[in-house]
Amino acid sequence: MAFTFVAFCYILALILTAVLLFLVIFHIIAFDELKTDYKNPIDQCNSLNPLVIPEYVIHIFFTVLFLFSVQLGAVLFNLPLIAYHIKRYLSRPVMSGMGLYDPTSIMNADELSRAQREGWAKLGFYLLSFFYYLYSMIYVLVSS
């Protein structure tokens, strides 16, 4: 059982995917609080917007590590969500700071529904990723 760079990439991706899962769960809870009028949109957007860029950077970071370790299956698995993140960030509302969520438009029923669907889809993707990385990590550690 050898510890290789590929195993390191999968272990790091596993840990970082757990972090991404917590971020996505926080987003889902925040949008539910907005839907039920538990929190005001300005405070909620101020707490959500700083988490957007770290989520994107973490996801791109371990995908680049997979690229360096020539794990093309993992890279191809992650590329659609990275492309969506880039498209979503480039088409974000005009704001003074970084982030995706505008307090004036987030309470729109369509925007809130889209944000919730996006959160649930990301949760599913990151859960699937977590178990894929867990399986791949075990496979790499056992087979080498």
From TrEMBL:
Keywords from the UniProt entry: Membrane, Transmembrane, Transmembrane helix
Keyword match Iron: no
GO biological process, one term: vesicle-mediated transport
Main location: membrane
UniProt cross-references to SMART domains, sorted A to Z: Cornichon
UniProt topology in membrane: Multi-pass membrane protein
Keyword ATP-binding set for record: no
Protein location: Membrane
InterPro entries for this protein: Cornichon, Cornichon_conserved
Transmembrane segments: 7-31, 56-82, 123-142
GO CC field: membrane
Name of a matching Pfam family: Cornichon
PANTHER family: CORNICHON-RELATED (PTHR12290)
Family: Belongs to the cornichon family.
Protein name: Cornichon
Source organism of this protein record: Arion vulgaris
Gene name per UniProt: ORF189077
